[in-house]
Design brief:
Blueprint: H1 12-17, H2 20-34, E1 42-47, H3 65-68, E2 73-75, E3 82-84, E4 87-94, E5 97-102, H4 116-127, H5 139-145, E6 146-153, E7 156-161, H6 168-172, H7 180-186, H8 188-193, E8 201-207, E9 211-216, E10 237-242, H9 246-254, E11 260-263, H10 269-272, E12 277-283, E13 287-292, H11 311-320, H12 323-330, E14 336-337, H13 359-368, E15 376-381, H14 387-398, E16 402-407, H15 410-418, E17 425-430, H16 438-446, H17 459-469, H18 474-490, E18 495-499, E19 501-507, E20 510-512, E21 526-528
Parallel strand pairs: 1-10, 1-11, 15-16, 15-17
Antiparallel strand pairs: 2-3, 4-5, 5-7, 6-7, 8-9, 9-10, 11-19, 12-19, 13-17, 13-18, 14-18, 20-21
């Protein structure tokens, strides 16, 4: 696939008959039209998390880095298409070789020009190839994927994969590019304190646990963005305040201390008819489900058999939960019941064997499996559980499960899953959504060796996952993806729930064009009135 940008040209006739003064006027007018307006004002966003890392190459980096850094490819926020970003175009040379033409005229925030050497360096740094101790985000995934990277010139990069991967574009959109020469000069630690990217916003100040201040970058390259892509910042300063408690954020919003924040469905009604605020809903095609460990045959602590290895037990859990009622009564009602693959992604098929809510059938299946009185299990959760979580757990208790709630952090849960030492269940998201949901979902959650896989082995699934990875015909690949999804439903690998809807509220004194596929505020769509 190759993407080309067309530039509008003055017609030969207009040039031929134009007077010299008129010609200069046309050029000046075109320049004024292309130049973005000067950013102004300060917009403060209250966020429910701290910025544990602002280095985009490290694990647990925050979503604000989408506007401070950029990748080769981006996703359109309106229709999930793959769009050019730092790569102006790309093409497939062979099943294991992709050529990317690096955009010319792009500079990092320190003025350094972007070259293919920076792209190669960014991949190798995050993979741990330059420093084995570097805590690169999703390092195992990159190490399995990338063989080597060639840079024949400053604006050409050839990425060689270890095996064919038709989903490459959806994966590399999360590889943010960093400046090679600058990091080699100041070192990894110094760079991680104040990173330099190529995005429309520059990191200006950070106080851990309190705030992160961003400023519009005047030399950002994309002055005429296509709809759904990042353009120049229209707000001069954006401050991201760490405010973990929703009650605190709502009070600050009403007091004018912040101008926008994300809220829950329980709070949104208080803003719906308030003319001082605007409410925005964003449905994201990421699948949420209840995940449980059925890899281990026995409980490592007690030595007792693991009930979840029995497919009857897993099917019982599916019948125990009324997903439609959860969506209607405890969420926004706008959520889609997930098929385990993001809506409208490659391979999406709405016709899956949904489990009907039938608690009596659930009890019968548990009894057939030898658990007529239920069994004990652990549910891992963050400290601030959303209301629907308690209802979900009550559904399971109603059919006999004795559930111990154990509060933990996402980082600890992820580490335990990666080490295959998490025993019990938790809520989890299937990949990153977008145009190709299977790209990350299959790699991390479905493949037996995936980072977050805690299920038993299924050779048929392993074979299908490998086949879809090497199938570059999209229609054929979609069929293979759907074949996997059907097996996941048949054998009840998870309890599929819904695709989330994120809610944002902003002061009516500001304009905001809300892209439907943006969970957080898309900062380049905010502008003062």
């Amino acid at each position: 696939m190759k993407v080309t940008r067309f530039l509008s040209l003055l017609s030969f006739r207009a040039i031929a008959i134009g007077l010299a003064l008129g010609f200069v006027g046309v050029l000046y007018s075109a320049w004024v039209q292309a130049a973005p307006p000067l950013p102004r004002g300060t917009f403060i966003i209250g966020q429910d998390y701290d910025f544990s890392s602002i280095d985009p190459s490290k694990a647990n980096a925050g979503p604000q880095l989408v506007v401070t850094h950029a990748a080769l490819v981006q996703t359109n926020f309106y229709d999930y298409r793959h769009m050019p970003d730092l790569a102006a175009s790309w093409s497939v040379l062979s099943p294991t070789a992709w050529k990317f033409n690096i955009r010319k005229g792009v500079t990092f925030h320190n003025g350094q020009p972007l070259t293919s050497a920076d792209v190669q360096y960014s991949f190798y740094r995050q993979m741990g190839k330059l420093n084995p101790r570097f805590p690169g985000a999703n390092r195992p995934t990159w190490q399995k994927l990338v063989d080597r990277i060639e840079t024949p010139d400053d604006h050409t990069m050839i990425l060689h994969t270890k095996s064919p991967d038709a989903a490459l574009l959806s994966v590399i959109r999360w590889m943010f590019i960093v400046p090679k020469a600058y990091i080699e000069k100041v070192g990894d630690d110094a760079y991680s304190q104040m990173p330099v990217g190529t995005g429309p916003y520059v990191i200006k100040e950070r106080k851990i646990g309190e705030f992160l201040t961003l400023e519009a970058y005047p030399d950002y390259w994309n002055v005429n963005p296509e709809k759904g892509t990042r353009g120049h910042g229209k707000v001069k300063t954006i401050i991201l305040r760490s405010m973990p408690k929703e009650q605190t954020r709502v009070a600050a919003l009403r007091a004018g201390e912040i101008q926008g924040t994300g809220i829950s469905q329980d709070t949104v009604q208080t803003f719906e008819n308030d003319k001082n605020f605007n409410v925005y809903y964003s449905p994201i095609n990421q699948s949420l489900f209840l995940m449980f460990n059925w890899r281990e045959e026995k409980d490592p602590k007690t030595g007792e058999p693991n009930p979840l290895t029995d497919v009857r037990v897993r099917r019982a859990l599916n019948h125990a939960v009324d997903v439609n009622a959860l969506i209607k009564n405890y969420l926004t009602g706008r959520e889609n019941r997930t098929t385990l693959l993001g809506k409208d992604g490659i391979g999406f098929n709405p016709k899956v064997p949904f489990y009907a809510y039938d608690p009596e059938k659930a009890k019968k299946l548990l009894a057939e499996a030898g658990y007529a009185k239920g069994f004990k299990t652990t549910f891992f959760t963050a400290q601030d559980m959303p209301p629907y979580t308690g209802v979900l757990l009550q559904y399971l208790r109603d059919v006999g499960l004795q559930i111990e709630i154990k509060q933990t952090t996402p980082a600890v849960a992820m580490t335990n899953m990666s080490n295959k030492s998490l025993y019990g269940m938790l809520l989890w998201g299937g990949g990153l959504g977008g145009p190709d949901p299977a790209a990350t979902f299959f790699k991390t959650c479905i493949s037996y060796d995936g980072n977050w896989a805690v299920h038993g082995r299924n050779d048929q699934v392993e074979d299908l996952v490998q086949k879809q990875m090497v199938e570059f015909n999209e229609a054929k690949r979609a069929k293979l993806i759907d074949d996997v999804i059907q097996i996941l439903w048949r054998d009840a690998w998870f309890v599929p729930l819904f695709e989330p809807v994120f809610i944002k509220v902003a002061s009516a004194n500001w304009n905001y064009s809300n892209p439907p596929a943006s969970a957080n505020f898309n900062m380049t769509e905010i502008s003062p009135k």
